[in-house]
Amino acid sequence: MEPIHAPESIDLIALAPVLVLSVFAMGVLVLDLWAGKNKTLLMFVSLVGLLMTAISAFAKHPLPAFAFTDSYIVDHLSIFFTCIFTLSSALAILLSAEYNERKGMKAGEYYALILLCTVGMIVLASSTDMIMIFLGIEIVSICLYVLAGFRRDDPVSNEAALKYFLLGAFATGFLLYGMTLIYGSTGSTNLFKIAEFIKAEGAPSSPLLLMGIVLLVIGFGFKVAAVPFHMWAPDVYHGSPTPVTAFMAVGPKAAAFAAFFRVFTEAIPNMAANWEILLCIVAVLSMFVGNLGAIMQTNIKRMLAFSSISHAGYLLIAVIAKSAMAGSGLLFYMLTYAFTTFGAFGIIILLGRKGEENLEMENYSGLAYKHPVLALSMTVFLLSLGGLPPFAGFVAKFYIFSAAIEEGFVTLVIIAVLNSAISFYYYLKVVVFMYMKEPAGEFQISMTPMTLFVVIIGIIGTIELGIYPDPIIALTGLN
Amino acid sequence: MAEYFYISLFAVVALVVIGALLALSTLLGPRNATPQKLLPYECGIVPAEEAKGRYPVRFATIAMLFIIFDVEVVFMYPWAVALGELKLFGLIEMLIFIIILGIAYVYIWGRGGLEWD
FRET pair for A454, CA 20 to 30 Å: which of A190, A419, B76, B82? Predict the structure, then answer.
């Protein structure tokens, strides 16, 4: 019998994390048919799958390795992002267990969808080809549309899913159109070949190429919820099941930023003179609209949605700076953001009860008197989101801002720092409610172990990365 | 440019023939409309009810399931063309693909997607 020869470009080792996770996702899907009402087994299998995925991300040596005719890359950025994705999905699954129980969301597809969404995120962070990026974005989005509407008996959840679906499909259209125009004007969908073409032509100012870049900004801007493409975010974040909101704010956002960063720094860095100002406007608008919008909110999930818009603004600064250090800053920021966001949402879930979500800020009145540790944890998360030392958020912001200053974007950084100051107003508003108001009623908090576990991980991550970030910073180094 | 000549000739002939047929039937055709003639054409059968009627949502489910498998099977055409080059590797790849389709099928079956009642 003749030996089996795979075509040269097919490299299954490079694709290992995607393959492992896909197998586990399908396994969970099938297992659900026999698992009955108890979903603990599914959860366990999903977590094992995520762990295996994180391990298999390191299978490929040496780095960077290319596969599938240069459309897929395994490098430092993609491996680190894969680890962030698996971490955030694992935390999301841990948060979901008890929440889903409480809400009567029994479907086992929930776990399979989170795993498949993670597959899409890994593809997105590892692609060096427009087609692959589109594929990744579609996998992520389709899973999220379903997850957003998972509380089927809740009209708010349905509204979130429908809005997200319609607007998301529309934005994907923009993205695809942008890719088409760039392909039309450069003759390739491969990021490196596009860069080569642009370099050889000396940054051509062909209207097709410029239009393509503008459309890319719109498409990616929607996926990371940057102003003025953010209108979906508050409603979708508010309506989705709380663990899904936390998941959405971290994983898919990080994935979209990974692709955003890769496209703009690998494919069209020589066009920076054209897109820099565009991204600066988007970043500044995101920071202002996000922060000022958050001040107006009384619902804590909506507040965090606006806060996430402003964080997209800070992260855009990393894309604008486009240096290796900015890339490292992006990685570090996403990691801290994962710990902080999941911790904060964990507490939100702990405060909710069956039939009563307790999402208004008044519901947090006097929490510090009854549950001082919970209130203190929430304070840590909020201060870290705002960027106060000694918490992780400060180091992350410092990292990105100094990368931007090194590249000469001083005004942008000044605006960002001013915005961080504004953001303390609404973060501290929650703290004021917790510490300085009388309790309105009894808190009936059931300390469910897995949610509590996520909060503890969040606290450890937030404080550790704030006080002693050196080892992780060394890991993020893109050299 | 020579090859384009025949294509444009074909296009012109097609347009002329269509135009001529439409024009002739409008000019020569007798027009005596009866209620029966104005009914929507349903292959010669008298329509049983209005087209806007309600029908069970299960039809939509079945249609969706059909589309999923239908579109995925389309992938087998390019595979069949390239099988000579891909050899055994291609065959194994397609087997994996079919197993994945099979998992989708098992899932649909298990969730009761194929049951009518």
Answer: A419
